Amino acid sequence: MTRKMKLKISGRLLKKKTRRNGLSQKKHCRFCANEQAALLIDYKNSNMLRSFITERGKILPCRISGTCSKHQRTLSTAIKNARIMALLPFTAGHSTY
Amino acid sequence: MFRYETCFLTVPEITADESKNIESQLDNIVNELKGTVLSYERWGKYQLAYPVRKNNYGVRFLVRFEVDKDNKNKILDQIKNLLAVRQTELVMRYTIVRLGTNLEYIRPESLDEMATTAEPFFKDHKTRNSKESDEETHDSKDNDTTDEDTD
Fold it and tell me: B24-80, pLDDT tens digit by residue?
């Protein structure tokens, strides 16, 4: 029995992905590869967290950033804590820069 | 023993006396209940990601302390009371986070540090650009004169 894989990605994003990579490549979690980097996931390290949010300030989903679900959880809590301390923006509209 | 840290964001106009006052009050709370303060750091002035209480800038502090298991809740309650109620006019935001074994951390650059690193960079580039622009103007003048001669 062959079961069809369920695609959770929207059609638009899939097209974008295939256009860029040609064939879909498997992504690797950068924190699993380097244990030192995983220790630095912290709400204070806002410069690193900035690479995991979009221009609008939303948290990047793991299917795009490639992080595993374990590290995605720690990342998302760190980003939320950093937002409370005004280290990261909630949205792009209120920026003081 | 549990290790905790509190990071708090204060009004940009905070004076040295006021920050010392907060430090001594935190010291008293922790020492009274048999805890120890590991560090009290002033990070410096920061530009905020969004305005807080109509302020675009703020000063950040980080305090780390060790607590016994029995007195843990009392100390945390008293610190919350201090930062959220007694010092409300100064402290805009605060968080209390439990620490793991790793005490190293990376923090973003404050505005004071950025100013010291940027100054020599701009000085060098100003001098270079001005020299180059001077030379270019001289060259162009020379060229113009030679053209006229050949004509």
Answer: 999 999 999 888 999 999 999 999 999 999 999 999 999 999 999 888 899 999 999
Q: Which residues does chain A have within 8 Å of residue B51's beta carbon, measured at their own beta carbons? A: 94, 96
Q: What whole-number distance in Å separates Cα of residue B35 and Cα of residue B4? A: 11
Domains, chain A, ordered by start: 28-97 (4.10.640.10)
Could you tell me the pTM of the whole model?
Answer: 0.73
Averaged pLDDT, A24-33: 79
Nearest chain A residue (CA) to B58: A86
A29-66 per-residue burial string, b: 16 or more CB within 10 A, e: under 16? bebeeeeeebebbbbbbbebbbebbeeebebbebeebe
Domain shared by B94 and B116, yes or no: no
Last residue of a domain, one of B57, B72, B98: B98
pLDDT digits (tens, 9 = 90+) for B71-115: 889 999 999 999 999 888 899 999 999 998 888 888 888 888 876
ipTM here: 0.71
* Interface with chain B: mutation pick from A36, A40, A42, A44, highest number of B CBs within 10 Å: A44
In a domain, B103, yes or no: no
Residue B58: domain span: 2-98
Name the nearest CA neighbour of A63 among A15, A17, A4: A17
Q: Examine residue B47 and state whether it is found in any structural domain, yes or no.
A: yes
